[in-house]
Amino acid sequence: MTSKIKCILLDDELLGLKYLKMLCEQIQELEIVAVFDNPLVFLEQQKQLNYQLLILDINMPQIDGLSVAQLVPTKGIIFTTAYKEYAVEAFEIDAIDYLTKPLRKDRLLKAVHKAMRNIEKEEKPLFITSNTNKGKAVIYFEDILLITTSEDDPRDKEVLLINDGRITLKNISLDKLLEVLPHGLFVRVNKREIIAYKAVQFFSYDEITTTIFDVNNKPLLVTIGAAFKSDFLANM
Questions:
Q1: Residues where 4-aspartylphosphate occurs (predicted)?
Q2: For residues 15 and 60, is the Cβ–Cβ distance under 8 A?
Q3: Residue 8: helix, strand or coil by DSSP?
Q4: What is the mean pLDDT of residues 21-47?
Q5: What is the mean pLDDT of residues 125-146?
Q6: What percent of the chain has pLDDT over 70?
Q7: Region 5-123: CATH code
Q8: What are phi and psi of 79, to 5 degrees?
């Protein structure tokens, strides 16, 4: 879990910047890397700085905060402003949050916690490494369509991959797999199977028609177990 977020503060108003810095110093989840009162100086120097989050004002001379944010698309953005009319534009560029001045510590802390959740998601690996029937393998989450318990040995799991690929994971439980698979991309649907949401073509209350074709070239059907219905239906 992310312990501290490395952040940069940017506001052309010195009093506002000083107050923002004071609030951020009271939030233990934040580590202030640098403070800027000039957006052009920030843009010139930010490439040499290691940071994850930018907290900035919108109304600034020379270049506004919305434009600055679009020049650092890989960073988390929290806007602070005295004006409410920019909220739509802020969220259109995927800002984490939009805070109106005067700032409150509790509201800023809530925004920081949102930023932490976003960063934790981005920091999760894109693949799993596991012992398989072909040796140690790297399996990317985006390639997985369905995971099912092996008929030959229930300790093993059969993984159906895109482009009709198939691989056997050795001696691993579905519970363990659920711990590492991205929750937003996969869901357990019964005692024996985990499915990727992208493999769902149609679904009813108790059955899924998948995008996977069986040996007879017909869509593979997967049962939704009674204990797993609410979780599946809520996420869908």
A1: 57
A2: no
A3: strand
A4: 95
A5: 89
A6: 93
A7: 3.40.50.2300
A8: -90, 145
Tokens encoding 215: 């040996």
Q: 139-142 long-range CB contacts below 8 Å, 24 or more apart?
A: 139/167, 141/181, 141/182, 141/185, 141/186
- Detail the DSSP E strand segments found in 141-218: 144-149, 157-161, 166-169, 186-188, 193-196, 200-203, 207-213
Which residues, 6+ apart, have CB-to-CB distance to 161 below 8 Å? Answer: 139, 143, 144, 145, 167
**Confidence band (pLDDT; 50, 70, 90) for 87?**
low
Give yes or no for residue 1 having a pLDDT over 50: no
Task: Please state the CATH superfamily assignment of the domain spanning residues 127-235 in this structure.
Answer: LytTr DNA-binding domain (2.40.50.1020)
Task: Compute the distance between CA of residue 181 and CA of residue 187 in angstroms, rounded to an integer.
Answer: 9
List residues bridging with 130 in a β-sheet. Answer: 137
pLDDT digits (tens, 9 = 90+) for 144-161: 999 999 999 999 999 999
Q: HEC states along 12-79? A: CCHHHHHHHHHHHHCCCCEEEEEEECCHHHHHHHHHHCCCCEEEEECCCCCCCHHHHHHCCCCCEEEE
